């Protein structure tokens, strides 16, 4: 017998929930129960515990996504699983599709080398702080970047200090003396050796990253590979990724050619040559580059965060490698796995049409304002009707809050969020911050559905002077 699911909802959402379920024609059996609360999002675990006296023979219960309270305790009390559904009813079909397959994003193959490009200008303490930041964002190896014609007297001490802190470290230079000193100080990797400097690998235990003798000379790279294989030494190959309009496409072809010639060797890609040297948002670039790495079995990247526009590049690369690994492992497109790389847009920004919002507005009997967006613009409504605009300033004269500073401020903030979401194509949910994927750190401000929100500053009463 198929699973029987009990959906709990409120008065305003019941009709829509039934319509969505009917359209879904799910394989499971279901019962829709209206719990006697007008707005489903105001439902709480305690309220369900008091009001739900019959579970209708269900195998599990799904409550609104914004239902607050301890569902584990409620589940134990009712004797069957209780879980939150999606925040929006329109996402119910997707919710059940995702529930059947939730990729594991804890796994990846690509190792991130995060370069401290200005290491000679940093103190050891500052380098350790930078390394910790990179590690928090996903870096596996801290790359110490040397600078041409720049003294670096603290290099060896910096490497030893980072090693003592538990970091894997690479030394990054084309100067043989730097590489020798770095290797002898304990660096795990050396960037970069070529055919004329392979002798350095015989002097230290560090794993070398090999580059062509001259920029596009794959024959010299082939010889370096053969020499390291003859030594029975571990190594990594970097055919070098070039910036756009300076050989980017040809360099991608080189990576493909190296993989064809050497199916089993470890390869590195320096993604910073694209993310740093292109003024465009880096999340999409990281997704594409890590996708290429996944296809070509490139298991190391060198990433940087020098330019301010690339200030989340390592965090983005970390998420991208996990998404691509999951997509490859499950033989699926890198869609609907995780939204973290979609900072500006979202797959389904407008779950409700203007007609559906208007129907909801017609059922409202209280003075509290609700705000939603559709393709047509920003909508604000209460019992007195619905107003729509593209510019929130057009709405102010219609709201009647001229003498209520707190309420006016609150509506201004919410309408501004709604306008941004409408213009960019993002989800807007009243009283919640917009989602910017992994582009920002959510300090909340992350919603804890076990607790109740305290009154905001616009609702708090002022203490008398």
UniProtKB/TrEMBL annotation:
Protein's UniProt name: Dihydropteroate synthase-like enzyme
Domain Pterin-binding, residue spans: 93-334
Signal sequence segment: none
InterPro entries: Dihydropteroate_synth-like_sf, DUF6513, Pterin-binding_dom
Taxonomic classification: Bacteria, Pseudomonadati, Pseudomonadota, Gammaproteobacteria, Methylococcales
UniProt GO BP: pteridine-containing compound metabolic process
């Amino acid at each position: 017998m198929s699973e029987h699911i009990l959906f709990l909802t409120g008065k305003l959402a019941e009709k829509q929930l039934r319509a969505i379920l009917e359209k879904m024609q799910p394989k499971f059996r279901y019962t829709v129960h209206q719990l006697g609360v007008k707005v489903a999002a105001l439902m709480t675990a305690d309220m369900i515990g008091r009001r739900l006296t019959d579970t209708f023979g269900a195998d599990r219960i799904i409550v609104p996504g914004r239902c607050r309270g301890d569902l584990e305790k409620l589940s134990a009390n009712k004797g069957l699983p209780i879980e939150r559904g999606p925040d929006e009813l329109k996402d119910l079909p997707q919710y059940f599709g995702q529930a059947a397959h939730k990729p594991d994003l804890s796994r990846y193959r690509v190792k991130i080398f995060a370069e401290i490009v200005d290491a000679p200008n940093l103190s050891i303490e500052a380098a350790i702080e930078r390394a910790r930041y990179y590690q928090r964002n996903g870096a596996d190896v801290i790359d110490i970047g040397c600078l041409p014609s720049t003294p670096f007297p603290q290099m060896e001490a910096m490497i030893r200090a980072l090693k003592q802190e538990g970091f894997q470290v690479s030394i990054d230079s084309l100067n043989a003396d730097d590489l020798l000193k770095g290797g002898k100080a304990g660096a795990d990797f050396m960037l970069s050796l070529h055919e004329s400097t392979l002798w350095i690998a015989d002097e230290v235990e560090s794993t070398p990253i090999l580059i062509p003798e001259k920029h596009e000379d794959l024959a010299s790279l082939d010889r370096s590979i053969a020499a390291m294989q003859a030594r029975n030494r571990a190594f990594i190959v970097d055919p070098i990724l070039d910036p756009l309009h300076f050989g980017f496409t040809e360099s991608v072809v080189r990576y493909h050619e190296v993989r064809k010639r050497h199916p089993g060797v470890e390869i590195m890609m320096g993604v910073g040559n694209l993310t740093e040297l292109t003024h465009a948002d880096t999340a999409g670039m990281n997704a594409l580059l890590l996708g290429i790495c996944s296809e070509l079995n490139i298991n190391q990247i060198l990433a940087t965060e020098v330019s301010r526009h690339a200030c989340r590049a390592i965090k983005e690369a970390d998420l991208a490698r996990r998404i691509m690994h999951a997509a490859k492992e499950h033989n699926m497109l890198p869609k609907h796995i995780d939204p973290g790389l979609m900072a500006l847009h979202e797959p389904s920004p407008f779950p409700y049409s203007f007609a559906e919002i208007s129907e909801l507005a017609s059922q409202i009997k209280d003075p509290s304002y609700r705000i939603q967006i559709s393709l047509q613009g920003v909508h604000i409504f209460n019992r007195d009707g619905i107003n729509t605009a593209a510019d929130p300033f057009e709405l102010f004269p219609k709201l009647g809050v001229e003498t209520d500073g707190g309420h006016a401020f609150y509506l201004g903030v919410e309408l501004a969020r709604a306008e941004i979401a409408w213009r960019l194509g993002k989800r807007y949910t009243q009283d919640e911050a917009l989602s910017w994927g992994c582009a920002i750190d959510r300090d909340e401000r992350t919603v804890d559905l076990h607790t109740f929100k305290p009154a905001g500053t616009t609702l708090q009463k002022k203490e008398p002077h």
